[in-house]
Amino acid sequence: MAKKVVILGAGYAGLVCALELNKLTTAQEAEIILVNKHEYHQLVTQLHEPAVGAKEEKDVTISINSILGAKKIKFVKDVVVSIDKTAKEVTLESGKLSYDYLVIALGSETEYFGIPGLKEYSYTLKSVNQANRIREHIEQCFQTYNQDKKDSKLTFVVGGAGFTGIELVGELADMLPQLAQKYNVPKEKVKLLNVEAAPMILPGFDEGLVAHAKQSLEGRGVKFIIGTPVVQVEPGIVHLKTGDTIPTDTMIWTGGVRGIPIVAESGFETEPRGRAKVDEYMRALGEEDVWIIGDSCFVLSPNGRPYPPTAQISTQMGENAAVNIYASMKHVKKEAFAPVLLGAVASLGRKNAIGSLGKKMKATGWLAYRVKDASKYRYLAKIGALLKSK
Ligand SMILES: Cc1cc2nc3c(=O)[nH]c(=O)nc-3n(C[C@H](O)[C@H](O)[C@H](O)COP(=O)(O)OP(=O)(O)OC[C@H]3O[C@@H](n4cnc5c(N)ncnc54)[C@H](O)[C@@H]3O)c2cc1C
């Protein structure tokens, strides 16, 4: 009889896992059920673009049913509420699902580090809906500025200078002057600030590339406030550890992620930031039939540092989990997770980016931007290739 494999989350990790498992198994071997709270798959790595109106929602979402077509993967649009690993059962908002094998790929949520007011009074950028909210809010700030001339409406603060924060700052640096022109607002009144607690921006990137990024963004009016933690946020005001305050109607927080609470609440072992501990085969620690992949888990790389929460790593975890679920079904040797790291590219707005491939190859400017843009197509081609099989 076919084994029932339930995959929770159709993001980078869950979708690739489902498609890879579909490729490996026959309908007699596996019944694959993919659960996701939206009917679409989101290209999360592009969200900074719709957040400023540079792209539309349709450019960063793909209908899951249109991806799966007639494949033997059953899609269930529902919200996961809890997991009972003893009963091998998942509770959804509208019912229950039993499983033989479970894959948890529910992504991450925003980490607020307990900073008072941050959760209540900031925007976040982790979904298409949140990107839409940011775009509508920014547009409204410009639309209404000439009514009351409140400067806080034209002061935009991005908290966090990692990948997400810097890519968003780059888009804003290009789009805010265009909005000023559209709404007849004085350009010199518009302020764009990036606040970061760590001593530098873009941790993990080569120093020369970071310098290029900083210079490019400063050249477009971005003010960096580095090595300065945010300590409180109130409506209309951001407080910094230095005692300084920033009057602003727009605080967008990209300062960190933590695991999705369902994982710890369901009794899986987690590290302090709520990400699941897994074994070398991506199974939840101490579990034979539960895999936890993507941003929901925590894996140390050979250099002793955790792999960063990226789409690049998440898709490879999805592939590895599929291979190991199949190995479990067939009682054959499993494969330890050993990702291939291609490098990283961060966009700096519409025409610029920084990127590295391995230790030696580095690129900046338009060329790097094209590579970043192509990464979306590389990912879509990968999904396409998986779809062609079976
Ligand atoms: C703006 C931005 C830019 C980025 N740029 C890059 C980049 O250039 N390169 C890179 O490698 N990484 C980048 N990242 C990081 C990357 O997007 C994440 O690491 C990746 O999305 C994680 O994949 P995942 O499958 O674990 O989670 P996700 O892609 O978040 O997928 C999780 C899925 O689970 C669903 N879900 C969640 N909770 C529930 C529930 N309770 N019930 C049902 N469904 C649920 C969600 O709807 C979603 O479909 C970026 C992130 C952001 C925010």
Automatic annotation (TrEMBL):
Domain (FAD/NAD(P)-binding): residue spans on this chain: 3-318
Keyword Flavoprotein appears in the UniProt entry: yes
Enzyme class, spelled out: oxidoreductase
GO molecular function: oxidoreductase activity
The organism's place on the tree of life at top rank: Bacteria
Cofactors that this protein relies on: FAD
Keywords for this protein: FAD, Flavoprotein, Oxidoreductase
EC number: 1.6.5.-
Gene3D superfamilies: 3.50.50.100
Family listed: Belongs to the NADH dehydrogenase family.
The protein's name: NAD(P)/FAD-dependent oxidoreductase
Organism: Tumebacillus lipolyticus
